[in-house]
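RECORD TYPE: inverse folding
INPUT: structure tokens
STRUCTURE:
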């Protein structure tokens, strides 16, 4: 059997493990003790979706079995949250420029700022989902007195309104949402993430 972690081969000595499930159980116990968890499984070159996970547990190990695990650590998750916090801080500072850029015919520059903001929000949502795998981190993140889930539930409609205003080329609404709705929330996010 060959075990890979994030695509890199690792030395493994099987003890009593005879199935993929037994290897996964042993690995996850060790990973948890080291502040890590498995977020993806590839068995013999095939990605295993969550709904098929139970099907592979009893798969017997052979000399040809290749198990590639995607693993994240608590430290990596915190580092990513802090890095995205810095990116969001930069986005927050540039939001007031969007309306001015649109009104002065600089749509390409405004679009670049908005694309960067959207990318950063995407990364934040993905990383927050990964952080939920580490409850000791996830539970401590509050923004404006709200847990992450509540904060995003309130924030997503604002982002949808912003997107619609952009499609309608309504620079007044874009400017108002950017300055009075989105920027203050991003500031709150960066403050919260800087404290983890």
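DESIGNED SEQUENCE:
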């Amino acid at each position: 059997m060959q075990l890979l972690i994030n695509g890199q081969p690792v030395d493994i000595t099987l003890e009593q493990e005879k199935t993929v499930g037994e290897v996964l159980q042993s690995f996850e116990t060790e990973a948890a003790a080291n502040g890590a968890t498995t977020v993806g499984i590839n068995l013999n070159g095939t990605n295993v979706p969550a709904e098929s996970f139970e099907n592979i547990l009893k798969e017997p190990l052979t000399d040809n079995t290749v198990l590639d695990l995607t693993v994240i650590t608590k430290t990596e998750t915190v580092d990513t949250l802090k890095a995205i916090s810095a990116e969001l801080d930069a986005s927050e500072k540039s939001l007031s420029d969007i309306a001015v850029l649109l009104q002065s015919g600089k749509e390409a520059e405004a679009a670049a700022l908005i694309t960067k903001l959207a990318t950063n929000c995407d990364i934040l949502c993905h990383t927050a989902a990964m952080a939920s795998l580490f409850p000791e981190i996830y539970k401590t993140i509050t923004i404006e007195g709200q847990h992450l889930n509540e904060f995003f539930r309130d924030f997503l409609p604002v982002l949808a309104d912003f997107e619609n205003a952009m499609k309608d080329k309504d620079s007044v609404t874009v400017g108002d949402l950017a300055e009075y709705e989105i920027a203050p929330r991003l500031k709150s996010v960066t403050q919260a993430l800087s404290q983890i």
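NOTES: The helical segments are 20-33, 53-56, 74-103, 107-131, 135-138, 148-167, 171-193.
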